[in-house]
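ok so i was messing around last nite and threw this chain in just to see what happens. nothing serious, just curious
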Amino acid sequence: MLQWNYYQPTELENRITVLYRSIEIETVGDLREDLIAARLGIKLRYEDAPSFSFEKGNFRCIVIDKNLTSAEKRKHFFHELGHLFRGHSGDQTNFPDLFKDLLEEQAEQFAKYAMMPYYMIQSLPLPEYERYYVYLIASEFNVSLTLAKERWEQIKRRISAGRWEQECIYRERNRYRKASPDNWCDDAKEVFRIAIERKMQKGQGVIIR
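result:
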């Protein structure tokens, strides 16, 4: 069974969740490009041209290449939405290649989270066997198997990291709890009391840190 209580969403994931819930995008069925664009006040167009996004003042527009498959159109939409969400507006023609690569990477990361929000995956009736999870995610969210697998592996890593962190915290707390005299058994307390008395009798004193 998947232990979602250990999952630690990133800051970007949390921001996407806040954005979606502010426009009432709650279920997989709500993840429609036209619905999201309309609720965010973004003009969405499909043309015989490369996909791009544009923002000027209060006007925002996303253009998607109409010749793409439905899954590719979906990926391009969320990628361009990521550019608008992160404020990647303006002419980037003269930007250094490394900077442009960074912007593209940020948009890709946004798209992966926005296409497959963790709280929606969490609500899916997952199959009995894990090997089918990727196929279910790909089908439900209309993404490629490659993207679904990347997202699923990412989720598993986050759950493992969260579980490891909680186990470390538990061990540390338990270690300090056992070290506290308040939690010692009566025999240990008596031995400690006698040791202190002997040191006091010898005039050595006792320092407890």
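not much to say yet. The chain is about 55% helix and 10% strand.
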